[in-house]
Amino acid sequence: xxxxxxxxxxALTSAASLVQCYTFPEFSEKQHISFKEDISxxxxxxxxxxxxxxxxxxxxxxxxxxxxxxxLPWDARVDDLVSRLSLQEIMVQMARGGAGEYTTPAPAxxxxxxxxxxxxxxxxxxxxxxxxxATAFPQSIGIAATFSSKAVFDVAxxxxxxxxxxxxxxxxxxxxxxxxxxSCFNPMINVVRDPRWGRIQETYGEDPYMSGELAANxxxxxxxxxxxxxxxxxxxxxxxxxxxxxxxxxxxxxxDAKVTDEDMHMTYLPGFKKCVEAGTYSFMCSYNxxxxxxxxxxxxxxxxxxxxxWKFKGYVVSDQGAIEFVISKHKYLHTHVDVAxxxxxxxxxxxxxxxxxxxxxxxxxxxxKQGKLNExxxxxxxxxxxxxRMRLGQFDPPQTNPYSSLDSSVVNNPEHKEKALExxxxxFVLLKNVNNSLPLDPSKFKKVALIGPMADNYGxxxxxxxxxxxxxxxxxxxxxxxxxxxxxxxxPVCHEQTKCTELRxxxxxxxxxxxxxxxxxxxxxxxxxxxxxxxxxLELPGHQKELLQDIIKYKxxxxxxxxxxxxGPLNVTFADDDKNVAAIxxxxxxxxxxxxxxVNVLTNKDGKNSPAGRLPNTWPLTLSxxxxxxxxxxxxxxxxxxxxxxxxxxxxxxxxxxxxxxxxSLEPKVKAGQDIRVDLSVSNIGSVDSDEVIQCYLSWKxxxxxxxxxxxxxxxxxxxxxxQQIQHSLTIKAQRTAYWKDDxxxxxxxxxxxxxxxxxxxxxxxxxSNIVYADFEITDSITYSDDL
Length: 788
Known about the structure:
single chain; alpha/beta; about 20% strand; BXL; Ig-like_fold; Fibronectin type III-like domain-containing protein; signal
């Protein structure tokens, strides 16, 4: 049996969780699938019984109703479909966002030929959670470190192709289990404001502008480029003011984020606004309250901002269990009827519950009866759900939709494997490189040791919520390095993986003595930092600092290279300062290509793998610089508002070559609201071909304004050959010169500064390249809404 046949057969088996709803006959891939649907009051709140047959998982294509007429506009088709639904049917559709056997799928409506649909899927760096293999790219924080819109787009494209291919096969197999749909809950674009937050790895870093730009490219990659259909739909999560805590010092499910209007608009909202501009199909409302109002019943965020100010037309889905937590955790309201009414009135369209058969949205009909909800509003809320399904092609002939032909055979094909390696290689950030200790020439090192809890730790190198795949697809650091150092020595030295609760000191000594090269593989992994788990501090976990100190003690003249696998910053100041540590390479969680990517960068394989990743979040010098986790003021947080020195700054990263910036040119005067055109030249003045990340930062000379110290205005990753000079033109959007004050955006008359280079200006630790600077004057002032 081929892989796809095995996939389909096993997908059928995985549908056993739906047996209370569906029974399946013996399946043949070439046959239509018959299944009996019996929807009872106890399961879904409605009564219906019908035997139906979907050809390849799709209903018969008879044009019996206007919503099936493909020549009509989308809105007309959606309006017709929703007009034919009873209020009970609408309620069930809005209540079945997953996850689990009781709340997924949104059930079929046989009398209209409407098939089931699964909403609860994830694919932010590969199809997650669904049965079967998937390409496993680096975790999102590593992808962000590429500072490359193209890399982000490529990851999303591959994840989208594989997710849709598997989804098509699941539908053909009649499997509608959790995570088998084509609507992905990503990108996650909450800003990193605290280095201890457990979910840093799922984000794109601390800068709201960069997060928004990357999110827009994720959505572009997910949706595909067809003029009528989308491949999979993206959802920007988690909306909003959600950046920890997970569990320390208080649980996220009841946390109330107190935030000023200025911080809300300057930091927490911009990335989500970019999602609307990029055409996201949905948002996910968060667990926390915002200034006393739980996010999933928050009219200010979901209606006043999202729909009225930003003109968003899609749907909002709750985070899993968030609507139930309005009652049980926040104690904000006390009955299902009241919460259902509050959520729908505020702007929530779909409930993702904790697999509760009678979840909150199953009270929508009762809320209408009690006059707490208007039926016409309920009908409006369900429309974006069916519009999304139409754009996925669920109500059109499959032969008209190119994405209907995708299947699971695309998973982890050679092109996708190569792309995973490319992105992992591009994500690494070189933090230290004394006397050009890297790249390595493997032929010069005969006695090599690999030491540390991340050396051969398959389970931790993917990070939180990894795509499922065969173990054979991935290489650990040990497996990769053994290919260039065949006699490499390795033994486990830590108890309990990266927690390193006990250290085998004698083994460390044995491995460290009489070596030419020692590679230490340290870090956190999801057992230390992840969803549900914040860190109490920034220290290397357990005995890992002692481990590194012992290596230094016993290594003699061996060259010591440290590999770090983590998302949130680590306190490695001692290693950065110690001359015995030759190099430090930040690897994040690289996914399936971990071993090969490490070899590529450590050796600059084929002269094409000079590191050019840059840190997407600030590494503080000490924890004392970081405000309390529960304090949502941006004062003192991130490079935009931090006044002290960092260990490693946002945008920092070394290379195997050096760059020189020259000839910065821009108009000395611009009108308020006018984009800024900039020209400059960049030269690779070293001997190694390499990528470089061009970064431009803005600052306001008038320090009395409510503005950041500086903020990113532009970034782009470019490739420059050794000895080559390139001319680079760029545009900084006028919005980057605006700030929020008195319920409006303001661009003030006055002088601003512009720095361009491969890093921020005035940092404690800098890359070996210069920064060019120019002033420009804004000649007038304007005030505007979100329409600039």
